[in-house]
Specification:
This protein has 16 helices and eleven strands. It is an alpha/beta fold.
Amino acid sequence: MPIATAVTKLLGIEHPVLLAPMDVVADARLVAAVCNAGGFGILGGGYGDAEWLSRELDALGSLRRPFGVGFITWSLAKQPRLLDMTLERKPTAVMLSFGDVTPFVDSIKRAGAHLICQVQSLAIAREAVDAGADMLVAQGTEAGGHGAARGLVALLPEIVDAFGRDLPVVAAGGLADGRGLAAALMLGASGVLLGTRFYACTEAPSADAAKARVCAATGDDTARSVVFDILRRNVWPAPFTGRCLRNAQLDRWLGHELQLLQQLDAESERFAAARRERNFDVAAVIAGESAGLVPKVEPAGAIIGRMIEDASRLLAGGAANFALSPA
């Protein structure tokens, strides 16, 4: 049973399930799989690889469903032509995460695209709304990849209370199944954005060994830190850190970041080699706490279909799970 919300109406989709624009991982194949299943795929423009972006946009040329493209906002400040290249392909929406979106709003709106802004606090949400966002993604600290410090359960309804009357709010962080979708809707969200669950799906280009680690992990097996950012020489400004699966490399340096900096040349080279070799004892598997809710690798369509079915059942029969006493 389809679940209609403000998000499905705005984006012209069947199900309120969005693919997080994971850098490189959210490629054209994965975007198309999510879109064809009735969700909203968002291509992962990430840090801005022009050659990759052009190739993946070309691959989406035959897609006849709404789709989006997402960027880390700082990358557009360095390469504004990436936005021009994107808008030429007429995406339904552009999602911007982290940094000031103001310089890009007019171009996005003139092209007829919706602006989705990912936010990690009420203050950041207010800045996005003032800049002209059409939709907010409230990202809790449970999320994989970069994020901040606030948990989703309190952050989401606070943002909904402040801005939900004017524009849709989507929940992100720690969500992977129908229970998460139902809970997010009950907290006032109009949909969910999933990263980790789709990282470990059949169509994702993630290495099989990385997918296996996600499926074997629990939420306890993740940590938020700056270790992997140091190793790749790309430390983000406060308050943003990155959540990944714990591995031997993270356990070695977590809490010892100063010593890591003192040995950075050798360790950074070792980390780069591990990424090329897909040695995930050293290289990072970027995943959130919802890894504990990912039992196996499945097609995106099966994931979305079961999520909608389970959420619909929970929402329709929720009262059966508890007793209401007369006043």
